[in-house]
Amino acid sequence: MNKIRLIGPFAQIVTMDSLPLKGPLTDDRLEIIDHAGILVNGDVIEAVGPFRELKSLTSAVEPVDEELTLIPGMVDVHTHICWAGSRAGDYAMRLSGKTYLEIAQYGGGIWSTVAKTREASLVELARLTAWRASRMLQQGTTTIEVKSGYGLDVDAERKMLKAIQNANGITPADLVPTCLAAHIKPRDFEGSAGEYLDYITSGLLPLIKAEKLTSRVDIYVDEGAFDRQDAVHYLSSAKELGFEVVVHADQFKPGGALLAVEIGARSADHLEASSDNDIRILAGSDVMAVVLPGASLGLGVNFAPARKLLDAGAALVIASDWNPGSAPMGSLLMQACILGAHERLTMTETLAALTCRAAATLGMNDRGILRAGMLADFVAFPCSDYREIIYNQGGMGAVAVWKRGKRL
């Protein structure tokens, strides 16, 4: 039987409880408990409340510095952290004026990472993925979605998904795998984009379903990737096989967000090029709007219209998009703070986009909120006022992380 223990006292605990899934949020909606504690029973939260009251319920106390503020563990719903090689050369070309598409034409881009990832062993890919996940965990991200997409054939994509699965057993973070075999049409595939998707649909998706490597499928719909017609057919087939689907949408041109709504995707991710009409339709749907400021910073392009999305009533989520090409930073909190300053997001909107709303995007209703019955994932920052976390624009690092009740 697990022994209940009390962790604290914390100067503040920000629970993120009782917030709506969609639309704008003012800071007065936050539940903040001062001089607080959190009761943990194994890997689950037993209670959250004033430390003095909770202290009467157990003699087992895990003391912490009172000048700490606690928030739920952050959830990153869009990353590409399973890869081998480096794209520093791409970045140098970008700084010299080359565009994302021009870099690909010069031999860089996604295809250069595909070559290195295909060459890497399963053990090496798992090690690299676990190392990146552990770095994110140290920064306070306790749940991490991880895409394949740098294999682009049946064997290499399966290897990537197995590497993500193996990495999940190495790092304490929870990794959520997604199949992105529909990233681009590989150069070595003799056939059309639609024929490649048929090859993936018949050769890969049933295999990874049977092996329980993932329950999620993603596709990149944009210039240089896949068009709407091919994407509709592919995603419909994936849904018939029992996969949940998401869409890389509206990064360089619109159209993907509307497709995500039409197909009933879990989320539409990117949205930098979304029009006002796209925003309106997205906000009126159940599709989560995932914005990726790391890609905007890496590519030097406009941020997604986060303020417009919220004001229209969308469910806004912020993710890092950590990848070797367009978003190499990998710091979720820093990116979110920069986006918040640019788009005039309230602190509550930013925190919700990293915690409760992000967890909902992955369908994980056991995390992202600090209350009884939820998973004991939380992170502490060295301040007595939660506003300092956002105010420092990612410069204030986490000083303690608990994953499933265990301090790391």
Short description, anyone?
The model has no long low-confidence stretch (mean pLDDT 96). The chain is α/β, with parallel strands linked by helices.
Descriptive account of the structure:
The protein has 408 residues and is α/β, with parallel strands linked by helices. The protein has two domains: 4-73 and 368-407, Urease, subunit C, domain 1 (Roll); 75-361, Alpha-Beta Barrel (TIM Barrel). It is built from 17 helices and 16 strands. It has helices at residues 51-55, 88-95, 100-105, 110-119, 122-138, 154-168, 193-203, 205-210, 228-240, 256-263, 276-283, 293-299, 306-312, 332-343, 347-354, 356-361, 387-391, and strands at residues 4-14, 32-41, 44-50, 61-63, 69-72, 74-76, 141-147, 174-182, 216-220, 244-249, 267-270, 288-291, 316-318, 378-381, 400-403, 406-407. The strands form two sheets. Strands 1, 2, 3, 4, 5, 14, 15 and 16 form an eight-stranded mixed beta sheet that branches. The chain has an eight-stranded parallel beta sheet with strand order 6-7-8-9-10-11-12-13. Helix 10 links the parallel strand 10 and strand 11 (267-270). It is globular, with a radius of gyration of 21 Å. The relative contact order is 0.17. The mean pLDDT is 96.
